[in-house]
């Protein structure tokens, strides 16, 4: 996608600022002459920024504004290593709320909605992001935070919440619980804003049907504000991102080469206005593609496709690359299988074995279903799995992002 | 305390507004002619508002602004019954942050401090109140939320947090943990801002000593914004409250009569600027007194004493009224006893029995200590308890407000 003139100017200004004082990027961009960056092509020669760079900067190495301008930090969970800490100025906090408000508006949410917020607060960017954006919109927030399903449902009914903000996994849990308790007619939800992780159409449809809502994927990551930098519109299918705040590239995950619009690759983000911790060409590990052309909704903001997966949740088994999204798509076409699954990859007696656990609807012929899943898996993905069917609800539901693929070989 | 002219005008304006449209107070004040309220004495004839009134208004009966102006609700925990829901407009949220900023400033905290926030977020007012106030000040917030002591301590060290916001109970837990791990020299804390519940001087001193910090009591309640309406200054000893936002009376808990400055009674609050859910003469159940005279710190804001207890945590045993504060004071003078205690009141074989559990320091002569506590208790409070000594750390620490008195008779 062609870089806009306005984006180029913001990037140049930022690069000048970053290379003129002691900070993370002064080191990172050592040897780069900013004056010589005259075009998008020049920009694309700049080095990528990696999550590992951010980890090395722990705790506050990314901070590019003086202490007195920083009002907050957020942090990625750090379950996979040293956490990453992102400092925010007041302007960053305000810009984020502004973008988040725009997300709600894109989803047709207004100041007459009541927005129940179930993601967590604190170091995680989710809860407070959803809240301050909704407050900026002037909607009534019902700030629940995670867990306590009884209380969630009680407040959802008593407050007549019209919008649910949640991870897909927690939205599913709530939908199932509402069905189980037979309280669907007391629920006033109209829309769900679901933190974008990779989730399949089948799961999406189950949540939409059981809650009777329209669902909107909202995208973001702690390193770049948090959720709220993109959301799908009412035409559905793809997410508009705010190209006045971020510059987005899609690159080949292996070569780093920028890909043409429409091709799937890794999302790379450059922030245009961030103060506390600007990022240049940050590798998100999220896989998507630019959706070319104009959106039927009429919005001028460009689009990326629903996330296809992450570069790091691909597993390679017997030479075959497998993405969770492929398994989700497979399950969509199989009657009797639910959307919930788990994959275990093990090395047993000298061989790699992929075991696929799938939740099934009651009363299904399990033997026939196993055979069908095996056959379809082999046909579509190129490998024969061991299939284990389990009852609905047996696989874990998570309040945060779900891990569905476990590679036990290493 | 004499009502200021500016307070009177704000109250009159508010009363006129509240009685001119359908809302909670239009009903509550039926028959009151606002034009006839000409003086403080007239105001003092208005009926009190009780927590029960607020519960009956569940869920949104208190809301006095139209839906589109409400941006948030908070709620009291509701462990003792139907929760109370308080709606906030954007101005309420801003006013609260403004008052909270003033609290930090009163405690000598600046935009160069790093403020670690350990109370919870969500429906509870604590976490987000501490955070938005700190952000308004321009300090760097480290938004932890409750629990996960390992991570709290790691962030406290890595972020070099200088201010700890916590309940007294959680501050104690962290202080003990720091001592146990011998990491005191890696802790940069200078001040603690402690959510005001009733806590004794001994506990205060232990926290102050072990953390090496100055402690500030911050006061507030969900029904009236949340924490941040009063805090003690660097002269210590009493809390300044913001009389440009609240009008505060001290009344006899039994008769409701307004008491002279200096006398202990129940705090009654009238909000002066609140929009979402204004309150007129709200009975807080908190016991304190107006501290007469001027504060050596020079602040013009009036003062209330450290909370003495709550009208509802008094227990009556064998005709004797006992407040937790009396037990805390008692333990202050007893060598070998820590600040931590628990009281169980039971009805056994036709008699009321008060059992006092006390944590003791190691190596103490337990028999002698038991006798001493019994004797002192009888002498000061007028009743002989059963004393049970336990080791340090055996009694529960809580992240929220501690309950130390359990009346098992009913």
UniProtKB/TrEMBL annotation, chains A, B:
<feature type="domain" description="AMP-dependent ligase C-terminal">
    <location>
        <begin position="319"/>
        <end position="409"/>
    </location>
</feature>
<dbReference type="GO" id="GO:0047475">
    <property type="term" value="F:phenylacetate-CoA ligase activity"/>
</dbReference>
<protein>
    <recommendedName>
        <fullName>Phenylacetate-coenzyme A ligase</fullName>
        <ecNumber>6.2.1.30</ecNumber>
    </recommendedName>
</protein>
<keyword id="KW-0547">Nucleotide-binding</keyword>
<dbReference type="InterPro" id="IPR000873">
    <property type="entry name" value="AMP-dep_synth/lig_dom"/>
</dbReference>
<keyword id="KW-0596">Phosphopantetheine</keyword>
<comment type="similarity">
    <text>Belongs to the phenylacetyl-CoA ligase family.</text>
</comment>
<dbReference type="InterPro" id="IPR028154">
    <property type="entry name" value="AMP-dep_Lig_C"/>
</dbReference>
<dbReference type="InterPro" id="IPR051414">
    <property type="entry name" value="Adenylate-forming_Reductase"/>
</dbReference>
<dbReference type="GO" id="GO:0010124">
    <property type="term" value="P:phenylacetate catabolic process"/>
</dbReference>
<dbReference type="GO" id="GO:0000166">
    <property type="term" value="F:nucleotide binding"/>
</dbReference>
<comment type="subunit">
    <text>Monomer.</text>
</comment>
<dbReference type="InterPro" id="IPR011880">
    <property type="entry name" value="PA_CoA_ligase"/>
</dbReference>
<comment type="pathway">
    <text>Aromatic compound metabolism; phenylacetate degradation.</text>
</comment>
<dbReference type="InterPro" id="IPR045851">
    <property type="entry name" value="AMP-bd_C_sf"/>
</dbReference>
<dbReference type="Pfam" id="PF00501">
    <property type="entry name" value="AMP-binding"/>
</dbReference>
<feature type="domain" description="AMP-dependent synthetase/ligase">
    <location>
        <begin position="64"/>
        <end position="270"/>
    </location>
</feature>
<dbReference type="Pfam" id="PF14535">
    <property type="entry name" value="AMP-binding_C_2"/>
</dbReference>
<dbReference type="InterPro" id="IPR042099">
    <property type="entry name" value="ANL_N_sf"/>
</dbReference>
<keyword id="KW-0436">Ligase</keyword>
<keyword id="KW-0597">Phosphoprotein</keyword>
């Amino acid at each position: 996608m062609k870089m806009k003139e306005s984006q180029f100017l913001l990037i140049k200004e930022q690069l000048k600022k970053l290379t003129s004082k002691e900070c993370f990027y002064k080191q990172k961009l050592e040897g780069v002459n900013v004056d010589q960056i005259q075009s998008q092509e020049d920009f694309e020669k700049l080095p990528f920024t990696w999550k590992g760079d951010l980890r090395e900067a722990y705790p506050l190495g990314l901070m590019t504004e003086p202490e007195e301008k920083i009002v907050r930090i957020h942090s990625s969970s750090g379950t996979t290593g040293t956490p990453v800490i992102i400092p925010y100025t007041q302007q960053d906090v305000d810009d984020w709320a502004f973008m988040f408000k725009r997300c709600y508006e894109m989803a047709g949410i207004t100041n007459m909605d009541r927005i129940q917020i179930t993601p967590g607060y604190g170091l995680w960017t989710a809860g407070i992001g959803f809240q301050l954006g909704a407050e900026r919109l002037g909607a009534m927030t019902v700030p629940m935070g995670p867990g306590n399903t009884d209380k969630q449902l009680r407040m959802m009914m008593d407050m007549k919440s019209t919008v649910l903000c949640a991870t897909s996994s927690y939205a599913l849990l709530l939908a199932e619980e509402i069905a189980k308790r037979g309280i669907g007619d007391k629920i006033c939800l109209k829309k769900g804003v679901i933190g974008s992780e990779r989730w399949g159409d089948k799961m999406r449809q189950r949540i939409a049907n059981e809650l009777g809502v329209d669902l909107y994927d909202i995208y973001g990551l702690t390193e770049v504000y948090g959720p709220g930098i993109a959301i799908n519109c009412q035409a559905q299918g793809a997410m508009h991102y705010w190209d006045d705040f971020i510059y987005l590239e899609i690159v080949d995950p292996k070569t780093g080469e920028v890909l043409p619009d429409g091709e799937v690759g890794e999302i790379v983000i450059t922030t245009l206005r961030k103060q506390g911790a600007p990022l240049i060409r940050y590798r998100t590990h999220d896989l998507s593609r630019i959706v070319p052309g104009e959106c039927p909704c009429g919005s001028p903001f460009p689009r990326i496709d629903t996330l296809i997966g992450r570069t790091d949740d691909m597993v390679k088994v017997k030479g075959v690359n497998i993405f969770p999204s492929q398994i989700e798509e497979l399950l969509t076409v199989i009657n009797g299988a639910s959307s919930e699954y788990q994959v275990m990859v093990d090395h047993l007696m000298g061989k790699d074995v992929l075991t696929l656990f799938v939740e099934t609807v009651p009363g299904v012929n399990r033997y026939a279903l196993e055979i069908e899943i095996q056959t379809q898996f082999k046909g579509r993905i190129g490998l024969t799995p061991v299939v284990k069917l389990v009852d609905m609800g047996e696989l874990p539901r998570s309040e945060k992002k779900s891990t569905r693929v476990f590679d036990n070989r290493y």
